[in-house]
Write a structure and sequence with these properties.
With 336 residues, this protein is an alpha/beta fold. It contains eleven helices and twelve strands. It has a twelve-stranded mixed beta sheet. α1 packs parallel to α2, α2 packs parallel to α3 and α3 runs parallel beside α5. The model has no long low-confidence stretch (mean pLDDT 94). It binds S-adenosylmethionine and iron/sulfur cluster. Iron/sulfur cluster binds next to loops.
Length: 336
């Protein structure tokens, strides 16, 4: 076990396999062009699997593959196969926008993927196009049902809720998930990256999301999975499934955050809102031993003091929060 400066153990690793994406969601990656990480700077699958193995040695139980859009990385099943074979890993998951899922699902499943999170912010095809700029809702729905047919479980659907944009989609999404046996996860709109022009006026707080759902489909709070998951989960009292809300803005969970991130170009990042990463690729490519990499990882985690969301809430409550004053690493490169 490896504890940070606030006694938080390292338990999860989020790996961004690419910074590229086939969508341009307005809340995440609103610009048409970005300065992409050069191909040779992207970690190979062998390098990623080595880091994962070392992390598991320190207590990492869960790995999530993300991006950017992980399915645009070629041969991703090869990485899944390597990670699924690691001793001691309890959970391997993928977060995707679903656009390429129907064509990749069999290879992903055969490689060892058991569960998946798919992002879908609205069921209205025109709004979906406006929100993702390049997305086609019907392809995502095909992907969701391909995952269901392939037997992946649970299938969680993620929706970022933005006021005035898709807050009227909360109930339709809940009904869709209940009807088809998916678990909806609503995400408070966050000030990730530097380009989405986030303001607190665009945020729909967890309390409001839950009140809206509870008024139509009564809920019972179940808490956080294992006490440290980002999502606070609720069951429908009628027994037809569950929903969750990730309330990083209004109910920060920094105190129980056990996540380390690995960027596509090989940097350890200790918080989604970090301003800097710690380059492990130089060690990987410079011939470092496992012990040297272990020592590097341990020194970063042990010094970790991040509690950005708690500080943001304090600043928001005192009305002096300016998201632009804190320059962050873009979410696409550090893995949302
Ligand atoms: C960065 S994406 C990467 C994986 C994949 N491309 C996808 O969209 O699922 C991971 C998650 O972050 C969420 N996300 C992106 N920008 C966000 C923001 N500004 N606030 C809250 N969640 C956000 C997405 O909706 C998605 O569920
Ligand atoms: S949320 Fe996912 S799909 Fe949308 S732009 Fe970001 S990385 Fe791409």
């Amino acid at each position: 076990m490896l504890d940070d400066n606030y006694s938080r153990p390292l338990k999860d690793l989020r790996i961004s396999v690419t910074d590229r994406c086939n969508f341009r969601c307005t809340y995440c990656m609103p610009l048409d062009e970005y300065e992409w990480i050069h191909k040779k700077e992207i970690l190979t699958f062998e390098e990623i699997a080595r880091i994962a193995r070392i992390g598991i040695g320190f207590g990492v139980e869960k790995i999530r593959l993300t991006g950017g859009e992980p399915l645009v990385r070629q041969d991703l099943p090869v990485l899944i196969d390597k990670l699924a074979a690691l001793n001691g890993l309890e959970d391997l998951c993928l977060t995707t926008n679903g656009a390429l899922l129907s064509e990749r699902i069999h290879a992903l499943k055969a490689a060892g993927l058991k569960r998946i999170n798919i992002s879908i912010d609205t069921l209205d095809p025109n709004k979906f196009k406006r929100m993702t700029k390049r997305g086609d809702l019907s392809k995502v729905i095909d992907g969701i049902f391909a995952a269901k047919q392939a037997g992946l479980t649970p299938i969680k659907l993620n929706a970022v809720i933005e006021r005035g944009v898709n807050d009227d989609d909360i109930i339709p999404l809940v009904e869709y998930a209940r009807e088809h046996g998916f678990a909806m996860r609503f995400i408070e709109y966050m000030d990730v990256g530097n380009a989405n022009n986030w303001t607190s006026a665009k945020l729909v707080p967890k309390k409001e999301i839950i009140e809206k759902i509870n008024a139509r489909y009564p809920l019972r709070e179940g808490g956080r999975d294992q006490g440290s998951a980002p999502s606070v989960d609720y069951e429908f009292i009628d027994g037809r499934g569950d929903i969750g809300v990730i309330a990083s803005v209004t109910e920060p969970f920094c105190g129980s955050c056990t996540r380390m991130r690995l960027t596509a170009d090989g940097k350890f990042v200790t918080c989604l809102f970090s301003q800097v990463g710690h380059d492990v690729k130089a060690l990987l490519r410079g011939g470092a031993s496992d012990d040297e990499i272990r020592a590097f990882l341990a020194s970063i985690w042990q010094k970790r003091t991040d509690r950005y969301s708690v500080e943001r809430l304090e600043a928001m409550n005192s009305a002096n929060y300016d998201p632009k004053s804190h320059r962050k690493i873009e979410m696409i490169s550090l893995g949302g």
